[in-house]
Design goal:
Distance between the termini: 98 Å
Transmembrane segments: 6-25
Largest sheet: 7 strands, mixed
Number of helices: 9
Helix content: 25-40%
Strand content: 15-25%
Family: Belongs to the glycosyltransferase 43 family.
Shape: elongated
Order of helices and strands: HHEHEHEHEEHEEEEEHHEHE
Structural class: alpha/beta
InterPro entries: Glyco_trans_43, Nucleotide-diphossugar_trans
Bound molecules: uridine-5'-diphosphate, manganese (II) ion
Glycosylation sites: 293
Catalytic activity: 3-O-(beta-D-galactosyl-(1->3)-beta-D-galactosyl-(1->4)-beta-D-xylosyl)-L-seryl-[protein] + UDP-alpha-D-glucuronate = 3-O-(beta-D-GlcA-(1->3)-beta-D-Gal-(1->3)-beta-D-Gal-(1->4)-beta-D-Xyl)-L-seryl-[protein] + UDP + H(+)
């Protein structure tokens, strides 16, 4: 009897040991690493991508975590502020090329709403078709610039930017403002993706350098102890805000709480559009410097060369009609 028990015990012993070792290994296996977030993480990570760390093949799937070192899901992220880009645009041979470059940039930015405002008496077919295929949340507006303002030396796109502002105020007027940031994106400038990361955290009004503007390689706000104290510019340094249209962003809340702030025609001198607008909504002391205390150029005031159409026939010669 004893020997039977002994022999059974020795047959079972290795199996018991194997089970104990396996359980021990299982609980000691290190937790899989957290998935790394993409480069534009602060706001693109967790949207469309994995919200929680992946647990590929890890133990305890579908079970309670076994020990305290197991990673907990991160707390929910705050809502991503929408970036509203107001772009005035007008018909010319390079228009579709400019809009194509711009859409290719905007398509890479999370939660961006494009407000495209045509300087025209009606929405054009070219822009309507373009926007329909652009794959971007967008609003298509139009307003013509009165002929008397279509002169060299006068500010451009005043009415179009105001139409964009009016649309924003109307859309958000009746509800508590969703988090949002507005900026003015001319159709011919060049925008780095990092710029959108910077402007997304605008609380009231943020500013940054602009390249290739004002007759210099760049213009920039001068920053001391985190505050704007002046302007590095080669042109009309007496401007209250010596900054290009591409050099600032405004929170939606500020736009809504200053319902009368618009771009003015009357009394506005050339190059004063930005200052005239900004002084209605903020002060220099209040500005939030971005782009590493305004030491990085993330947007360029590029201008497209006028296209040479010297050999374009007077009358249509081709067998097909092609949109360019
Ligand atoms: N624009 C417009 N109507 C015009 C001229 C310009 O809507 O008659 C738009 C243009 O498409 C651009 C912005 O206004 O988005 C600024 O114009 P532009 O780039 O010619 O000005 P600059 O480069 O001199 O600041
Ligand atoms: Mn331009």
């Amino acid at each position: 009897m004893k020997s039977v028990l002994f022999s059974r015990f020795f047959i079972l012993l290795p199996w018991i040991l194997i089970v104990i070792i396996m359980l021990d290994v299982d609980t000691r296996r290190p937790a899989p690493p957290l998935t790394s977030r993409p480069y534009f993480a602060p706001y693109s990570g967790g949207r469309g991508g994995a919200r929680f760390p992946l647990r590929r093949g890890g133990p305890g799937r579908g079970r309670e975590p076994r020990n305290e070192s197991w990673p907990r899901p991160p707390p929910p992220e705050p809502p991503l502020p929408t970036i509203y880009a107001i772009t005035p645009t007008y018909s010319r041979p390079v228009q579709k090329a400019e809009l194509t470059r711009l859409a290719n940039t905007f398509r890479q930015v999370a939660q961006l709403h494009w407000i495209l405002v045509e300087d025209a008496a009606a929405r054009s077919e070219l822009v309507s078709r373009f926007l329909a295929r652009a794959g971007l949340p967008s609003t298509h507006l139009h307003v013509p610039t009165p002929r008397r303002y279509k002169r060299p030396g006068l500010p451009r796109a005043t009415e179009q930017r105001n139409a964009g502002l009016a649309w924003l105020r109307q859309r958000h007027g009746h509800q508590r403002a969703q988090p949002g940031v507005l900026f003015f994106a001319d159709d011919d400038n060049t925008y780095s993706l990092e710029l959108f990361q910077e402007m997304r955290t605008t609380r009231k009004v943020s500013v940054w350098p602009v390249g290739l503007v004002g007759g210099r390689r760049y213009e920039r706000p001068l920053v001391e102890n985190g505050k704007v104290v002046g302007w590095y510019t080669g042109w009309r340094a007496d401007r209250p805000f010596a900054i290009d249209m591409a050099g600032f962003a405004v929170s939606l809340q500020v736009i809504l709480s200053n319902p009368k702030a618009v771009f003015k025609r009357r009394g506005s001198q050339p190059g004063m559009q930005e200052s005239d607008f900004l002084r209605q909504i903020t002060t220099v002391e209040e500005l939030e410097p971005k782009a590493n205390n305004c030491t990085k150029v993330l947007v360029w005031h590029t201008r497209t060369e006028k296209v040479n159409l010297a050999n374009e026939p007077k009358y249509h010669l081709d067998t097909v009609t092609i949109e360019v």
